[in-house]
Amino acid sequence: MAENPATPAPANSRAAAKKDLPEHFKAYKHVWVFIEQERGHVHPVSFELMGAGRRLADKLGVELAGVVLGAPGEATDHAVAETFCYGADLVYVVSDPVLENYRNEPYSKALTDVVNTYKPEILLLGATTLGRDLAGSVATTLLTGLTADCTELEVDADGSLAATRPTFGGSLLCTIYTLNFRPQMATVRPRVMPMPDRVEKPIGKIVTHPLGMVEDDIVTKVLSYIPDRDSAKSNLAFADVVVAGGLGLGSPENYQLIKQLAGVLGAEYGCSRPLVQKGWVSADRQIGQTGKTIRPKLYIAAGISGAIQHRVGVEGADLIVAINTDKNAPIFDFAHVGIVADAIRLLPPLTEAFRKRLSPHISDKLAS
Ligand SMILES: Cc1cc2nc3c(=O)[nH]c(=O)nc-3n(C[C@H](O)[C@H](O)[C@H](O)COP(=O)(O)OP(=O)(O)OC[C@H]3O[C@@H](n4cnc5c(N)ncnc54)[C@H](O)[C@@H]3O)c2cc1C
């Protein structure tokens, strides 16, 4: 692997680092996306990656495939059908009762076997808890490179995957290449890539592959399945409207102003990292490089300076409104609307104005 600054180096400057791709890797073709599904629920990041994968596949002139692992039945069938609606040319399926719940061992074996048999040149996974666990073990088993938490994926003139991600605490971007091994693997966090349109399509070509493993082969046992009661608590990453507060609010009491405005707008509320570190707000509300990436239609940030680690999590918002007392705050460099004001004084009348202006019907629409 080679590490480069944010702008991909021209192909010829990497020539020295690039030994001839070993003969057995030359057969690796096509772009694959691992479709993460649990009990019939496909994680949206998988479809976001289908959009990114389609762009890469078209540039390379190859096929885009989804890989679905799961137990035989409706849930897996549904995931396969949806994968076609998000642009797959074909779908690889490993369907076995052992794969009903995620466990690293059988999932790694299934994905590794399918890769070794059908040889993709690029394999993308969501940087979710499951995706990170699976990607790491599959990459180490395949002895190939994995670039985690990418923010951009491109294909170079020589067909290499240029995977860009923040480094040095987010102060730099680096582009990483897996030059001499295949597949080139990358994970991407939810909401980093835009969601492509879903187009109703019939089921296309499916390639099934056996798991070749039975329950007795697996060390970990699933004793029961307990859904995470908190998982539905914060819908921050997928909200259309997000209101967030930072250290400029000065106290947890003042942070309530953020929640009040969010309540009136039917929005989700979030925060910068220091508020989580101070214990004012729970970690699932943190926005930024080490928190959630958001892509709302409207993002209101109050008392947030706009450090790069925060910026990378909000740049995908359609409209960013920043409230800050310091007219030179970095957030004004990327906000679409900047309000130089004391948020503690501005938020209550702003909330009241929205309350008067928005009928419940409009609030519902904004939030939907
Ligand atoms: C490895 C690493 C990962 C990180 N990950 C993240 C991350 O995921 N998310 C994240 O947010 N940060 C992250 N950080 C921290 C980041 O570098 C910043 O320190 C942080 O974002 C700053 O938070 P803030 O804007 O709330 O506070 P500050 O930078 O202190 O800014 C407060 C702002 O409030 C303004 N202000 C003061 N009073 C008022 C007022 N009354 N009304 C309006 N404005 C006012 C000030 O002018 C200032 O601009 C990370 C840092 C590192 C090193």
Structural overview:
This protein has 9 helices and 18 strands. It is an alpha/beta fold. It has 2 domains: about 1-215, Rossmann fold, CATH 3.40.50; about 235-365, TPP-binding domain (Rossmann fold), CATH 3.40.50.1220. The strands form 4 sheets. Strands 8-12-7-2-5-6-13 form a 7-stranded parallel β-sheet, with helices on both faces. Helix 7 (about 310-315) links the parallel strand 16 and strand 17. The longest helix has 17 residues, at about 45-60. Mean pLDDT is about 90; it is low at about 1-5. The structure holds flavin-adenine dinucleotide (FAD). The site of flavin-adenine dinucleotide (FAD) has 30 residues, from helix 6, helix 7, strand 17 and helix 8. Flavin-adenine dinucleotide binds near residues 247, 303, 304 and 325. InterPro entries: DHS-like_NAD/FAD-binding_dom, ETF_a/b_N, ETF_a/FixB, ETF_alpha_N, ETF_asu_C, ETF_asu_C_CS, Rossmann-like_a/b/a_fold. One of its GO terms (molecular function) is flavin adenine dinucleotide binding. Its cofactor is FAD. Belongs to the ETF alpha-subunit/FixB family. Keywords: Electron transport, FAD, Flavoprotein, Transport.
